[in-house]
Amino acid sequence: MRRPVLFLGPALALAVGAPAPGAPAGSEGWKVPVEVKKLANGLTVVVSEDRSSPTFGISIAYRVGFRLEPKGRTGFAHLFEHMMFQGTPRAPKGVYDRVIEGGGGITNGSTRYDYTNYIASAPVSALDTVLWLEADRMTTLDFSPQNLKNQQEVVKEEIRVNVKNRPYGLFFWTDLAGKAFDRWENAHDGYGSFEDLDAATLEDVESFFRTYYTPGSAVVAVAGDVTPSEVFAKVEKYFGALPSRDAPAPPDLTEPPNRGERTLEQTDALARVPGLALAWKVPPRASGDYAAAAVLGDVLAGGEASRLYQGLVKGRELMLQVQGGLAWPFESPWYVSGPALMTFFGLYKPDTNARAVVDAVQEEVRKIAEQGVSGAELRRVKTKMRSDFYSSLELFVRRADALAILQLLTGDAGEVNAIPGRLEAVSAADVQRVAAGYLTAAGRTWVDRRPAAGAPPAEQ
Is residue 176 assigned to a domain? Predict the structure, then answer.
């Protein structure tokens, strides 16, 4: 749920193994500089120095996402993401955006399963101001009935635009997860329902802030034209006096394997052709199979060279398009700590049916489980994935975001330098084992979403 119009575009690609901006000439690959310090109040600070541009990116990640919001308050973490842009008693609504964007910077925020993050980028001369603003809104917000009502309506409008009045809505995420997962924390619709959003009170919002928006539940990461010592000193100056507060114990998010196929049929008044979403539960991020699952996801749906595109779109011509992978549709499989799904979504031709498409996908999985992948295919996929990962770190604001999220979820921002090696270590046997062990017919969940009766047919 990124706030619109600010920063959504992809970074320019870096060649795999090529020195990134700020890397010394002739260096082997690229290691992101990472320095970490923890303040007495529990706030963790991560700094990545890079003198290639007189700018910086900052990300503050909080340990609260869809999985931690209270029952009966679906969409509450998302709602609160919006509340953070409503100003404070010392910096009223609009000041934060005007200060950053007026200096040529950008700002944004998003809510995910395991975190909510706030990012900004600006000239390095604005570092003190931005840190002051971030510390100010970590201290308190302008909690008012007007602000709450306004943002309830904003989130409801997002739901109208992105779910209710859009073909297919977000069924490939919300509805599919609701069917595949068993625990409420993993299965409920984190985007939110009108009923739960309207039921939220000002007291609920203030309590949520005091519970989750604390120094001990946050990571501040800064990347760019800065030194670790200067950032540590400035963060101590602006954030050090904030009181520490104990966070609630996290809920049990573990999920048992699914032992039987789960299906759901839906109709869509806005769809012109049928759509299918298909998923399997995968091993947790800490598992030795996780990196192999990430590679398998790209083997199956990582672009036009993938197995599903070549086999079902180009070859058998059952589907019109297909996309997906591990932890899809979110940005990266590495930014998840709780249970994840291997998800594929596509539109299929009206002259076939969902069962035939699901069986065709399963057949592509079976080929990998029985025959494996070739060395050339594995090298191509891993090269692409490493290139995409390096590319995602090129912009300072994205690099800071990666460091904040990884520190929050794993306790080690240096994980950023381990991920390419983990991908490289995945063998063809690993991919084959994961396909055979996890992507089984009995463990799959799929949702078939067909045009409603009376909907105009697709043009042939």
Answer: yes
SS3 assignment, position 103? coil
User: Distance between CA 297 and CA 409 in Å, rounded?
Assistant: 22
The 3-state DSSP class for residue 435 equals helix
How many domains in the chain? 2
Tell me the two tokens of residue 179.
């069917």
CA 215 to chain centre: 22
Pair (180, 297) in one structural domain: no
Q: Is residue 1 part of a domain?
A: no
Exposed/middle/buried for 126, CB within 10 Å: 0-12, 13-18, 19+?
buried
The CA dihedral of 310, 365, 173, 396, to the nearest 10 degrees, is -70
Residue 398, in any domain of the structure: yes
| Four-point Cα dihedral 310, 316, 322, 328, nearest 10 | -80
For residue range 85-113, what is the model confidence (pLDDT) as tens digits? 999 999 999 999 999 999 889 999 999 99
End-to-end Cα, the chain, rounded Å: 34
How many Å apart are CA 261 and CA 162, to the nearest integer?
Answer: 29
If asked whether residues 313 and 390 sit together in one domain, one would say yes
What is the residue range of 311's domain? 262-451
Q: What number of other Cβ atoms are within 10 A of residue 425's Cβ?
A: 11
CATH code: domain of residue 80: 3.30.830.10
Residue 187, in any domain of the structure: yes
Radius of gyration of the CA atoms of the chain, in A: 23
Residue 260 to residue 452: CA distance in whole angstroms: 28
DSSP state of 201: -
Report d(CA 351, CA 9) in Å as an integer: 36
Number of neighbours of residue 8 by Cβ within 10 angstroms: 10
The model scores a pTM over 0.85: yes
278 and 395 co-located in one domain = yes
pLDDT in tens, 52-69: 999 999 999 999 999 999
User: Are residues 377 and 295 part of one domain?
Assistant: yes
- Is pLDDT above 90 for 241? yes
168 plus 287 within the same structural domain:
no
> pLDDT tens digits for 326-376?
999 987 999 999 899 999 999 999 999 999 999 999 999 999 999 999 999
Q: Encode pLDDT of 122-135 as tens digits.
A: 999 999 999 999 99
- Compute, in degrees rounded to 10, the torsion defined by CA atoms 405, 338, 322, 425: 70
Q: How do the residues of the chain divide into helix, strand and coil, expressed in percent and rounded to 5?
A: 40, 15, 40
- Give kind and range of the element (H or E) at residue 384: helix 375-392
